[in-house]
């Protein structure tokens, strides 16, 4: 069953990605975009400090992929809570509440877009970056562990969340966004968390289902939407870590234990939103690790994905 699901998911994702790429033309000096405003939505992967810290090692560097893309264009990006245009928030789900950590106050991705559109309109030189799916898969896995959802229901719910995500991306385009960069979830079966709880198969299927729902839903938006393969990129980190400068892609480098359920994987777990250079494994070089905590990526991993996304942007528009 799982093998059939994976084959189907991979075929759908490949076809959808190909369709999106078919709308792409080579960028030229004359046609290359020069964004004047950077806007972001999403979850902990894109959160640049909604509550003051980021879901990575908080070392003062450009340690988030959206910041890396912005820096490529000579721009900056700050959290909406600080007056900026990044609405992404840790643990945010696409449309469901509570969030992955059980809070009802975190804005969903839909609500983040609502908030932006309530007082802003898109212009022709805006660049929108959006990610989603990580928190929905985490929340669905928590429901399975609690016995309120079966594994098959988790997979179905994750696919629906991907479909809901696609609807929000379509909303952006319909509201006038010309350039939208989209990342789904990475394969959460590759995380230290998946290994710790022994649920790699279920998390692989749920992650694939989310991305399948997303890709099918945006397959006709290639003129305005660029899908960047976060799942594929993180797979490379874990499959061939040394090629990306990593020596460890199976263990978290942070030691910042959160007494609460800070990232949705249980209380008493490491939460990178609390991590600084003073809360790392003894003698560890953070640049040699792919994961900051059991779910989220280190600054080096974030920057490398951001550079990849920027390069894709430059070749696309």
From TrEMBL:
Keywords: Hydrolase, Signal. GO terms for molecular function: hydrolase activity, acting on ester bonds. The keyword Signal applies. Residues 1-22 form the signal peptide. PROSITE patterns: PROKAR_LIPOPROTEIN. InterPro entries: GDSL_Est/Lipase, SGNH_hydro_sf. CDD domains: Triacylglycerol_lipase_like. This is GDSL family lipase. The lineage of its organism: Bacteria, Pseudomonadati, Pseudomonadota, Betaproteobacteria, Burkholderiales.
């Amino acid at each position: 069953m799982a093998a059939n699901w994976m084959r189907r998911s991979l075929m759908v994702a490949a076809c959808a990605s190909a369709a999106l790429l078919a709308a792409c033309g080579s960028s030229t000096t004359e046609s290359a975009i020069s964004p004047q405003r950077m806007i972001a939505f999403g979850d902990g992967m894109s959160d640049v400090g909604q509550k003051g810290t980021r879901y990575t090692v908080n070392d003062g560097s450009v340690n988030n992929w959206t910041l890396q893309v912005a820096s490529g264009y000579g721009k900056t990006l700050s959290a909406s809570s600080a007056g900026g245009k990044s609405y992404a928030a840790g643990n945010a789900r696409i449309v469901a509440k509570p969030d992955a950590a059980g809070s009802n106050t975190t804005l969903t991705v839909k609500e983040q877009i609502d908030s932006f559109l309530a007082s802003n309109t898109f212009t022709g030189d805006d660049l929108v970056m959006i990610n989603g799916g990580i928190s929905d898969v985490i929340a669905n896995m928590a429901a399975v562990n609690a016995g309120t959802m079966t594994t098959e229901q988790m997979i179905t719910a994750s696919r629906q969340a991907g479909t809901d995500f696609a609807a929000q991306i379509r909303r952006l385009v319909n509201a006038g966004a010309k350039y939208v960069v989209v990342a789904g979830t990475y394969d959460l079966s590759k995380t230290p968390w998946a290994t710790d709880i022994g649920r790699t198969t279920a998390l692989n299927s749920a992650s694939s289902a989310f991305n399948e729902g997303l890709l099918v839903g945006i397959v006709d938006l290639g003129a305005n939407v660029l899908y960047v393969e976060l799942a594929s990129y993180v797979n490379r980190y874990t499959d061939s870590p040394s090629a990306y400068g990593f020596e460890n892609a199976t263990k978290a480098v942070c030691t910042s234990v959160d007494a609460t359920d800070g990232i949705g994987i249980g209380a008493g777990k490491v939460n990178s939103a609390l991590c600084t250079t003073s809360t790392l494994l003894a003698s560890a070089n953070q640049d040699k690790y792919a994961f900051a905590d059991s779910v989220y990526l280190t600054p080096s991993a974030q920057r490398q994905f951001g550079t990849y996304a920027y390069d894709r942007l430059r070749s696309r528009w």
